[in-house]
Amino acid sequence: MDPARLSLNQITVNTLGLPEALDACVRHDVGAIALWRDKIAAVGLDRAVELVAASGVRVSSVCRGGMFTTGDPADVLADNRRAVDEAAALGADALVLVCGPLTDHDLAGARARVRDGIAALLPHALAAGVPLAIEPLHPMMITERSVVVSLRQALDLCDDLGEGVGVVVDAYHVWWDPDLDAQLARARGRVRGYHVSDWLPRTSDLLLDRGMVGEGVIDLPRLSAAVAATGYDGPVEVEVLSSRWWAEDPDEVVRTARKRFEEFV
Amino acid sequence: MDPARLSLNQITVNTLGLPEALDACVRHDVGAIALWRDKIAAVGLDRAVELVAASGVRVSSVCRGGMFTTGDPADVLADNRRAVDEAAALGADALVLVCGPLTDHDLAGARARVRDGIAALLPHALAAGVPLAIEPLHPMMITERSVVVSLRQALDLCDDLGEGVGVVVDAYHVWWDPDLDAQLARARGRVRGYHVSDWLPRTSDLLLDRGMVGEGVIDLPRLSAAVAATGYDGPVEVEVLSSRWWAEDPDEVVRTARKRFEEFV
């Protein structure tokens, strides 16, 4: 894919702080970045806004709101409103919602809390002009991160909740789904982000063993074409949660991500 | 659930050979067992048939045929026919098919090979009177075991292939699926086996870290009721692939499985 569409999801270079990650984008001619809230908090929102403005780098998303099933709903809502405000201040294209995790035996109940949590947040997001983007995660992450595990389920939530809520398509999370083509056809106009990494045979960790683009078995060109057919033409985030890649020199990681992005995505 | 329906899937006591696993069933009043082909081969089929007959234990399934994507299709077919013959000789209720794995970037192609592989095997299975049972596995096992990852996909294959092909519902593999209730409603009369274990938060291994029944977060009573509503009233296998449980005394494992089965399934 044209590297002009590349966005560096900050967690791909997780050892860097926000200023250093922005510098890496500028150094490697990466036009967009996805920012994580812990890294924003580490410098403070105002300083983060200044740094982003000075860098000229676009913020493709803020990661993440959600986590509707943990703690008191009022506290969760308040924290999610702050996430919306951060995304608005940073001019982010969307706030990514990670919708879980499951903490007990009541999966249907957890899913209902997610639905209600998004519904409660939506008026604030609409007022702030920040699109909410539900990211279905791989079913193996259900007790760690998300009870929304398929694109179909995420789109059903969008249908239910109406304007202001879309989806993120993350290759790692959805590539296995026999229903994927049909759901992408249904997603037209509702894709708010596209994330790429790769699935490694003999994955050794459910959270932190993703492959760099091109290292694994996902047919990314095919998926990219299907996402393009939904009308999505915004930034494409390279998001590699990998303790192996985190141990590498971040400059080498960004260089590799850029090269693989051109070659494989 | 009534322990009269309990079947011990042999891999739950993986350190035991076939004779010792049958003895454990008799000792703990477990009326059925699921046999693995490597354990059958270790004693020889004829001896396995004698041992099963002498024990009075019913064979709920033979694990496993399938693996249609690895190696030459003619060799795979020949091996699957032998698996059918073993299941027939042992009087097994079904031959479980594990349908994969993915070995390259062509997921649609692998799924087509699985379909064609089952179609090629089916006449032999029908002639032998052995029901084939497609077991959808958890999507995280796609590069290790199976490109059939959901009950919907397995039932679509059944629709396509016709008489003689059903499904296994394994709680560990399908519990996460938002589409599960709808697909179980569709599965009426086509369930050939029901397997139980549990999903552990912080799962540490994609293949060998299942929980014993009652250790995890799966709502087994609810799932058992939905499986019962399909009309399935045969043996229910406790199948725990767990390096942790394999390190325990097998008698203690079977005792625990039986107790938890009564309490939680």
UniProtKB/TrEMBL annotation, chains A, B:
The keyword Zinc does not apply. GO terms for molecular function: isomerase activity. Transmembrane segments: none annotated. Pfam families: AP_endonuc_2. The keyword Isomerase applies. Keywords: Isomerase. Residues 26-259 form the Xylose isomerase-like TIM barrel domain. This is Sugar phosphate isomerase/epimerase.
